[in-house]
Design a protein that fits this description.
single chain; mainly alpha; 2 helices; 2 strands; elongated
């Protein structure tokens, strides 16, 4: 059973998938290459292929906002009584016992 002519025209407008085509069709991710491989195994970046994104000039007055607030400060771990900071094994074990109980 085949689709009718009008339906078949609509199907032809859709993008190809790997199941619609015989072997050798590779869809890819759309990322593209930014360089080439040399015969010695190195990778040379070709700068004319590298994508550049232009930031709008009036970014501060832009009406759309990012998903993350600009006022948020970076969070850092607090290790008040440790001389080594977060690298102290004794402090880690003490904190683990307080949170998880003694085994």
């Amino acid at each position: 059973m085949k689709p009718t002519q009008p339906l078949f025209r609509r199907l032809r407008r859709l993008g190809l998938t790997t199941k619609m085509v015989t072997g050798g069709f590779y869809k890819g991710t759309g990322s593209g290459s930014m360089g080439r491989h040399t015969k010695h195994g190195d990778y040379v970046i070709e700068w004319h292929k590298v994508r550049t994104y232009v930031v709008p000039e009036q970014l501060r007055d832009f009406k759309l906002t990012p998903f993350v607030t600009r006022n948020m400060e970076p969070l850092k771990g607090k290790f008040h009584k440790a001389k080594k900071g977060g690298l102290s094994g004794h402090l880690y074990l003490k904190k683990w016992k307080n949170e998880n109980g003694v085994d």
